[in-house]
Write a structure and sequence with these properties.
The complex is a heterodimer of chains A (75) and B (161). Chain A has helices spanning 16-26, 43-54; strands at residues 5-9, 33-38, 57-64, 67-73. With 75 residues, chain A is an alpha+beta fold. Chain A has a four-stranded mixed beta sheet with strand order 1-2-4-3, covered by helices on one side. In chain A, a hairpin with a 2-residue loop joins strand 3 and strand 4 (67-73). Classes of the chains: A alpha+beta (75), B alpha/beta (161).
Chain lengths: 75, 161
């Protein structure tokens, strides 16, 4: 999937993946796609929670070799 | 999601390191989620807001003694249990660093950047003789219980930590 912005939160603990996602989203335009990678297990539920709480859209999520991958569309 | 901005208020009563951590994690995360966040620092919770180079606060022997038992700044914060003269605190910080958990003082800076309202308790400052110039910069104006309650009454989430 194509994306406009990549965020690497691998190795970061709670709450950093969410804080990094929010910071990047702030700098993005509406409709743009963010590609986020995280290894913190909490991110599995935290990122979808943040996405729904902020009204953004989780386009796709997957897990590969312990790395959680999310594609988020900014509202 | 409603159009009205959600809000969270935390009463930060404890100056313990292991309680400052969740306060700072929840505050920064709530702010990142678009919530309006206020943290009201009162009683022992006020000491982390005192500048680290201020060795002792207080206006008389008793308040100075109380300050002596509560080292200033986030660096002065002890563990609520198993502090073991600073050994427990040292281990906790070491474990956190190894686990890539950001220290509370760094999360506090992030909170300030994200516009979290930091309100020192005026009454505690007066009671313990902590002067405004002894506190770290960029804090909100000191307020009292009624102001804290006013914001809590309108908050979706109110916590006492």
């Amino acid at each position: 999937m194509e994306f406009d912005r990549a965020v690497d939160a691998k190795g970061q603990s709670c709450p950093m993946p969410v804080l990094m996602t929010a910071k990047a989203a702030k700098e993005m335009e509406s409709g743009q796609i963010m590609f986020l990678e995280a290894t913190d297990g909490g991110a599995r539920s935290d990122i979808p929670a943040w996405v729904s709480q902020t009204g953004n859209e989780l386009v796709e999520s997957s897990e590969e070799g312990g790395v959680l991958k999310f594609y988020i569309r900014k509202k | 999601m409603s159009d009205e901005q959600e809000s969270m208020t935390i009463i930060a009563f404890s100056g313990d390191l292991d309680k400052l951590w969740p306060t700072m994690i929840l505050s920064s995360t709530a702010a990142a989620t678009g919530m309006n966040v206020t943290v009201f620092f009162t009683f022992w919770g006020l000491f982390p807001l005192v500048k680290e180079d201020v060795r002792i606060t207080g206006k008389d022997a008793m308040t100075k003694m109380l300050a002596g038992m509560n080292s200033p700044g986030f660096q002065g914060a002890k563990l609520s249990k198993m502090n073991m003269g600073g050994m427990g605190k040292w281990m906790m910080r070491k474990v956190a660093k190894k686990g890539n958990l950001m220290p509370p003082e760094d999360l506090f800076e992030i909170c300030l950047d994200m516009g979290v309202n930091i309100w020192p308790c005026q009454m505690t400052m007066d009671l313990l003789g902590i002067e405004p110039e002894q506190m770290r910069p960029n804090l909100g104006e000191p307020v009292g219980a009624a102001t804290a309650l006013q914001v809590m009454s309108k908050s979706n989430i109110s916590l006492f930590i």
